[in-house]
C-alpha cells in the first residue's frame, strides 16, 4: 500500500514529461534503437526476422524486441506509461486499445509521415477500421487476425466411431443442442467406460469430456468459450460496434444460449469450473493433451501450440480442426479479432517508430510472418502463405478458420470504452453462472451495471 | 553532587547528535510514509487515472465505497481470512515456541522451523497452486489414492480462503514462533524451578507461568501479525485472483485491481484510507485489551 501511494505521488511529475510532442531523436542523429514489445513468444522469431530485414533497409536503425507473458505484459506496459519506460511501439489488443486511447497514451498514426498512408483496403475486410478511435484517428496498424474453430483429438473421435467428416457440419440449438450436443455426449466417457449418451452414464465421474472449457469467458466476451454460439444465434454484445454504449446481456437469446452452454457442464459433457483450475484455467490445449477433453473451441493463434502437443511419452499428438457449429441463425459464426501495432506518446522518436510500424504492416514483413505459420497476417497475401505453410509443413487444413472470413460469418470483437471496468464487472458474474451460484437471469443486473458505466461517463 | 553547568552542556550536545541520528529515519519517514499517506488521502477525494491530472470530486469516492457491495464483501472476506490465519498461526507458533524452549536446545532444529519463511510469498503460492491443482496436483492425487474425493482447494468458493490462510500459516508460523520464543527467553528459569519445587506439571506451568508472563510479547506479536494479515495480497494474486466470483477478493486485491487494472486511483485511494482506519481501530483495541504496554514480570 505504501508503495502504491508513493508511486501515485511520484507520478504526476513523470506523466507531465511524457506529453511533449517533440521528435528529438529523429531530428538529431537518426541512429536510434526502437523498443518493440510483444506477448506471444511463438511470434518472436518471425518478428526478429522482420526486425533484421528492417535494420538492413534502414541503416542506423535497430529494433529491440522484448517479450513478456500476457498478464505481465499489460501491467508492465501500464507501469511503463506511468514511469516513462514504455516502449516506442507495442503489440496492441482490441480489448485494451480503447482504454489506452482514452488515457491519451497512443499516438495517432495519421499524424506521422511513414504511417499516414496506411490503406484500409490492403487488409482483410474490417480489420483496419477497428483501430480507429472515436475521434476517427488511426491508433493501430493491422498486423494479424484470428478466428475460432474446434480442435479435436482424432483418436478419441475414432474410438467413439464418429466419422471426422461429420464434425465439419455440426449444428446446435438452445433447446436440444442439435447434432453438436449429440456428438459431444457420445465423445464423453465416464470412469466405467460408459458414454455420455448411454444408459447408466455417471456424470459425476467423467474420464473424458466431449467438450473442453476455457473458463466462463468474462474477460474477452466469451471469445474462446460461448461467443461462437451466441454469435450463431444472431446475438450482438452491443448496440453498435465499435463504440457501443448499450449492452445486450439482458436479451433472451443471449441468456438462453448461455443457459444451454453452461448446462453442458451440468450434464457432464464439459468440465466444471473447479476441474479446469478455477481462475487459473489450464486451457483447452492441455485438456486435449491430457485426455480430459476430446474436442474444444480455441483460437487460430493456438494452431502451432496444438500441432506441437505431445503425449506423456513425448510422441507428437495428431490434431484435427473443425469449424464452429451452425446455429439457429442457419450460419456458423466466429469472433473476428485482430492485433495491431501502436506507437506510444512517450516515444522519443515517433517518426522512426512509425517507419518500423509501417514495415510491419507492409507485405514483406507480413509474408515473413505468414511463412512462420504462427498467426494469420492481416494482408490477404500473408494469410495465403500461412494457409499454405500449415497445409505443406504440418499437413493441417486450417480452412475452418479462414472460411469464416471468406464466407463472411464473422462478427467483430466488441470494442468499447471503459473496457477495464467491463472486464472487472463481467469476470465474477460470468464465473458465478458457470459455477452454478447464479442463474443466467442474473446477467440482466450485470447488463444494467454495464449500461450505467456509460451513463456516468456520459 | 555535580554542578549544573556540565549537565546542561551535555544536554545541548545530545540534541544536535540526536537530530543527526534521527535525521535519516525522519527523512525516510517523511518522504516514504508521511507524504505518500497525505497524498493518498488527498487523492481519495479526487478522480484520478494516473496519466491525467486529478480532478477534485469531494466525498464521491467515500459515498461510492459505502454503497459498494463488493467493498463490504471484500472487508468480510478479509476479516474471515484474518481470523483463520491468526488463530491457527498463533496457536501453532506458541506450541512450537514452547517446544523449542522446553524440549530442545539444538540450533539446527530451531533453524529448520524458520525455513518456510525464507521462501518468498510468490514462490510459496505458486508451489501450493501446483500441489493443490485439481487434476494434476500431487495433493489431490494423494487424496484420490487414499480413496477420498478430490478437492478444488483453490477453485471452490468454500475452500479458497481457508486454503490461502493455511498456505500463509505454513510460511509465517516459523517466524512467529521465533518471536514468541524470544519472549519465552525473558521468563526467568527460576520461575519454572519454583514451579517444579511445588510439584506443578508442564501443563500447569504453561498456563500459570508461561502464558501470563508472555502476555506483552504475545500482544506485540498479535498486533504485528494481524496488521500483516489484513494486508494479504500476493498469495491471492497468484492463486485465485479474487475468485471464484468474489470469494477470495480480499480488500488489498480489490484495491490493487481498482487502481492498476481499472485506472481508478481515486477510488482505490479512498478504499486504502478505509483500510487504514480499520487497522488503526483494530490495533488500538488490541493494544488496550491486551495491556501490551505493561508486564506482569516485576
Can you describe this structure in just a few lines?
By secondary structure, chain A is an alpha/beta fold.
Helix content of chain A: 25-40%
Beginning-to-end CA distance, first to last residue of chain B: 31 Å
Q: Biggest interface: chains and residue counts?
A: A-B, 40 and 51 residues
Largest beta-sheet characterization of chain B: 2 strands, antiparallel
The main pleated sheet of chain A reads as: 7 strands, mixed
Question: Could you name the CATH topology of chain B?
Answer: MetI-like fold
Helix/sheet category of chain B: mainly alpha
In one word, what is the shape of chain B?
A: globular
Shape of chain A: globular
CATH superfamily of the largest domain in chain A: Periplasmic binding protein-like II
Q: What is the number of domains of chain A?
A: 2
User: Over all CA atoms, what is the radius of gyration of chain B?
Assistant: 24 Å
User: How many whole angstroms does the radius of gyration of chain A measure?
Assistant: 23 Å
Return the string of H and E elements of chain A. Answer: HHEHEHEHEEHHEEHHHEHEEHHEHHEHH
Write the layout of secondary structure elements.
The complex is a heterodimer of chains A (about 450) and B (about 300).
Chain A: H1 2-17, H2 24-27, E1 33-38, H3 44-57, E2 62-67, H4 70-83, E3 89-93, H5 94-103, E4 141-146, E5 148-152, H6 154-159, H7 178-187, E6 189-190, E7 206-208, H8 227-232, H9 252-266, H10 284-289, E8 295-299, H11 303-307, E9 320-322, E10 334-343, H12 350-361, H13 363-372, E11 376-377, H14 380-393, H15 399-406, E12 410-412, H16 419-435, H17 443-457
Parallel strand pairs in A: 1-2, 1-3, 10-12
Antiparallel strand pairs in A: 3-10, 4-10, 4-11, 5-8, 5-9, 6-7
Helix pairs in contact in A: 3-13, 13-14, 16-17
Chain B: H1 4-43, E1 46-47, E2 55-56, H2 60-67, H3 69-102, H4 107-118, H5 121-131, H6 138-145, H7 160-185, H8 189-197, H9 202-230, H10 234-239, H11 251-261, H12 265-289
Antiparallel strand pairs in B: 1-2
